[in-house]
Every structure is written in structure tokens, then in C-alpha cells.
Amino acid sequence: MKMLRFRSPSIRSLDQEIFCTIRLLDDSEISCSIQRDTKGQFLLDHVCNHYNLLEKDYFGIRYVDPEKQRHWLDASKPVVRQMKAQQPYMMCFRVKFYPNEPMKIKEELTRYLLYLQLKRDVYHGRLLCPFADAAYLGACIVQAELGDYDPDEHPSDYIRDFKLFPKQSLKLERKIIEIHKNELRGQSAALAELNMLQRAHTLETYGVDPHPCKDFTGSTAFLGFTATGFVVFQGNKRIHLLKWADVSKLKFEGKTFYVIGIQKEKKLVLTFHTSTPAACKHLWKCGVENQAFYKCAKSSQIKTVSSSNIFFKGSRFRYSGRVAKEVIEASSKIQRDPPTVRRAQFGQSRSYNSLSHKNLIMNMEPLVPALPSTNEYEETATDNVNAPTDDDVPLAAARVSTETSNGRPQTSKPELEEEEEESSSEVLTISELIYSPCTSMLPTPVEDSQGGVDLLFSSPLQSPAWLLRELHADPDIQAQLEAERERDRAYARVRLAGRSRVGGVLSSGLRLLLSNERVNACLLSVARFVAVVMGVLLVAVPTLLLLLESDIDVSFLHEIRQTPEFEQFHYEYYCPLRRWALCKISMALEKLWSD
User: Of the residues 39, 136, 333, 374, which has the fewest C-beta atoms closer than 10 A?
Assistant: First the structure.
């Protein structure tokens, strides 16, 4: 007899080191090695230790799977189980939760990292803003990176080297120069960055990471989550704002995402459709995390959220970090010397001299949300040979070529990142083709005036209409059919004569009913209704008894038992009915025993 041997992972496989590269907000990179059981929190702590960052709850690590779908790295799960890409792993350090009030950020280092994220949002067209706000934000960026205006060092067109927006007009550049010269003189880099944060957080798209989808009419929309609540944009216009206090539930089924809430004292259900189930699940998880972060007062109030209904098990998820109020309280208690902020050098900035205006390909209209075309995606897909790293979905699409931080022109990793950002938004694009099932019962819809069904056959002799006409026109075939019908009638008369009079009446009545098509359809519908009712009772009665009589402590059973409607039914209806039934049964048993 052979003994069964179970394979177990060897010590060598458990100790195998996996190489990870994390791209930071200034496009520099850090690397580290992890084990197969290393959790995501280790990588986040590794980046925060690199920066000497304490206010780390606003940040997260993001990656893109081989299907170009974005994900936030779950800090409570092993990294290897989440990553589907081949080694070495490539990830990006990004702002995950935008502070509602940047002035409450305690340390300059945290404000600088938020400034870098907002600069990326401006560049990719996610932070939409009017002309005046765009000029002020651009001037703050120039002041933070160049300092005061110096006519000896800055030529008349020095702003042209800064690529700040997807579409940067000459009028906008002149306005930026005017603000830089007159309004921001004397401001340090930290103060200019703070002014940018204060102006940016007043914009409608501040903190919006747009998720492309379709609404119930088929129109393209962008969904996002902010500190205020759930927002929907069409074009550059916000069409929905549902505050977190009014959002009661977020759920998804397949590619459909539901937002259930209350607006003007009425129940509101918003339905959207994504391109893939993975995109829908990512959208749902982002909504659950943002609602928990901004809405809850304490992390102990966060509950596990399920996307399923009562009878079907779906995805379950729980945000495991601290909430916004706890982060602000913890920031106010920080007692240490301010850490050194290592800003990118003048020549290393991604916005100055690293993006040549000759290499910038953009849409004709500035700051208008758009999705790249299929041709753009196909061209980008052929250029990308490495694994995807990040996926910043822009509201204003632009394809960009860059240089590395050391100034050597090549297809750098920042370029790869931006190309993948644009291509990934195409992955989320939903086809505009509309299927019309008009005349879909026939392989080739044709008009009756052109021959109708006969044209679907290669020969007129094969037409069923032609065969039917020939059948009725042949007298020999008609005589054969009449003889067969006469034999059937004679056989029926013999059977009727052999039965009793009552049986004959019943059988003839039944035959009369069955011969009536309308009565047949009615009986069939009644039979179906009875079958459905029996099936529902077979499921509902055991379930109801399980809820009422059992002590099984399952989560969804416990939630149902806690509802006021169930408690009212249990105490006002079920308990009196059970006492009455037990009384009748006991009386019947006593009478039976006495006999």
C-alpha cells in the first residue's frame, strides 16, 4: 500500500526574494526585495521611511495588472497574491485620499507630496479649472520651481519650457508670466506650494480620480469620489453630487455599478455600466474606501461591506485604515523637528525642459474630458513592451513623450507610464456601437415585395410556401388525407361506445376543452403559476423556519433578525399563530388518547 505524500512549499521557495520597484511622485524610483508572504503595508512603510513621512494615511501604492486595470495595493494582504504581473513588480506611490482642508496638514513634507500629486493632476487634465485658476496654479508651480522672476535669467518666453497643461495657449502663458512677476514675488517654494493647494482644493475636480463609464442612456460619464461625496461628470460639467451622508449603499453586479441614496427626501438609485467586471469591482472598492475614510468618525465604526443581496454571496470588503478625523487628530499631536524636504532639482522637474513642446500631442480643445481613440490605443500598445506600471486616467486626453531625469533622451519609464495611462483609459472605453435587433428572426431580412421567405432558399422547389401550395393542389394527396381522417373518426367512435355514459361525457368535455386553444393557454398559465408558487413555498418556508426557530448565528441571518419589520412579524403574528397551532395539536392528541 502506497502512502500519500502531500507537497508542501520548500523553505527555499518561501525565502525566495522578489524584486519590487516603486515610482515616486517626482518620477524617481526606489527598489526593495520582499518575500512571498510580505504584506502590502511593508511596501508603504518602506516608501514612507524613505521620505521620513509620518502623515502617511493619505497615500497608497497603485499598480496595473496585465489587462491594464488599475488597483490599489491592499496593505493587509500579501503582495504576491495581489500582483498578477510578471516579476519584477512595478508600482507607483500616489495620493489615495485628498485632504479636505490642506491647511490642517501639519508638516511641510506632506504638503509637498500633495503638491506633486496635484501638479500631475493638472498636467494630465484631471484637475479641470477655469482660465483664471489655471493661470494662478501655473504661476504657483513656476514660482515654486524657479523662484522670483529675474529678467536677466528668464527670457520673454521662459514659460514655454514649462508644460503644465494638456493644452497650453500663448494667452495662458502670458497670464502666468504676469502673475509670476507681480503677485508671487518674494514667496518661498513652500509658500507657493501652499497657495497652490489652497486654490486647487476649491475646484470641483479636486481629488477626483475619474472612472469612465456609461449611464443608463448610454452617454459617457466620469465617476469620482471626493471628501464631499460621490460626483458624476459629463464633459467638464458636474451633473451629480451626492454627499456621503446621503449615500446609503454602494453595490455592483458584473459590469453594473449602483449608487443608492436619498436626495430631497426621496430614494435615489443611480446606475452606471463599466467596460469590464474588474473595472466595476475596482470602482466599488474605491467608493467603499472613500466613504469610510471621509464619513466615519472612528475606524471602529467601519463595517464590512458586501456587494451581494440576501440569497447570493458576493464580494466582501472592509477598509482597514484610519479615517480622516483620526488622521487630523494624529497630525496635530506630531512633536518633532520638521524633516528635510528634498525637492526635485531645477533640471529634474518633469514640467521644465523635460517635456518638449515638439513632442506633445494633444486634443484641440483644452481641459475637455475625452477618451482616446482606438487607433491611439493600438499605436500605444505596440510601443509598450514592458509591464504596465501606473494608470492615471485623464479627463483631457494627451499623449506625451518625456526624457529621464538625467537628461538623456530616450523612451524612458516616465514616458512608458504616461503612454500606459492613456492606453488604459482606452481599455475602459465602451463601444459606441448599438445593436438593433430589427428583423433578427431571419438570417437576411428581406421585404415581402421581394419574395419574402422564398428568397432565403437557393431553389424555388425548396420553398416551404411553394411545397404547401403544391400539397393542397394535388387531388390524390387530398383523398389520402381524407381517408386517414375518416379512419381516425371511426376509431374514436368505437372507443366512445365502449365506455360508460358518464365517462363518455367527461372525456368528450375534456376533449372539447383541449381542442380550444384559448382554454389550453389558460390551463398552461395556471399550471405554471401553481408550480412557481410551490417552488417559492419550498424555499421560503424552510428559510422562514430557519430564521424564526433556529439559533444559527450567521451574519446575514443576524442582520435580518435585527430589522424592525422582522421583529414585528415575529412577535405580533408568528408567536400567536404558533401558540394557537400548538393548542389545537395538544387538544387533538388528548382527544385521541381519551378514546
Answer: 333
Task: Give the containing element (helix H, strand E) for 431.
Answer: none
Residue 584: helix, strand or coil by DSSP?
helix
Q: Apex CA 297: angle with CA 291 and CA 300, to 5°?
A: 90
Cα-based distances in Å from 229 to 84, 216, 245: 31, 21, 8
Q: Cell digits for 88? A: 519584477
| Residues in a beta bridge with 234 | 237
- 121-147: string of b/e by CB count within 10 Å (b at 16+)? bbbbbbbbbeeeebbbbbbbbbbbbbb
Return the closest-CA partner of residue 52 out of 110, 111, 117. 110
User: Does residue 397 contact residue 422 with C-beta atoms inside 8 Å?
Assistant: yes
Beta strands in 215-336 (DSSP E): 220-225, 229-234, 237-243, 247-253, 256-263, 266-273, 305-306, 316-317
Q: Residue 205: is it exposed, middle or buried by C-beta count within 10 angstroms (0-12/13-18/19+)?
A: buried
Cα–Cα distance for residue pair 119/133, rounded to 1 Å? 13
Measured distance CA(390)–CA(549) in Å, rounded: 53
Which three-class secondary structure state does DSSP give residue 553?
coil
Helix, strand, coil content of the chain in percent (nearest 5):
45, 15, 40
Kind and range of the H or E element at 583? helix 575-594
- DSSP annotation of 74 reads P
Residue 294, burial from CB neighbour count under 10 angstroms (0-12, 13-18, 19+)? buried
The grid coordinates listed for 1 are 500500500
pLDDT in tens, 179-234: 999 999 999 999 999 999 999 999 999 999 999 999 988 899 999 999 999 999 99
Name residue 305's beta-bridge partners.
Answer: 317
The helix (H) or strand (E) run that includes residue 327 is helix 324-332
Q: Distance between CA 384 and CA 278 in Å, rounded?
A: 22
Q: What is the rounded CA–CA span in Å between residue 17 and residue 56?
A: 26
- pLDDT tens digits for range 111-168: 999 999 999 999 998 998 899 999 999 999 999 999 999 988 888 888 888 889 988 8
CB atoms within 10 A of CB 342: 12
Kindly list the distances between the CA atom of residue 524 and the CA atoms of 507, 528, 529, in Å, as whole numbers in the listed order. Answer: 19, 6, 9
d(CA 389, CA 385) in angstroms, rounded, equals 12
Cell of 447: 421585404
Q: Which of 280, 195, 271 is nearest to 240 (CA)?
A: 271
Determine how many CB atoms are found less than 10 A away from the CB of residue 199: 17
Question: What is the distance between the alpha carbons of residues 227 and 231, in angstroms, rounded to a whole number?
Answer: 10
Whole-angstrom distance, CA of residue 244 vs CA of residue 325:
15
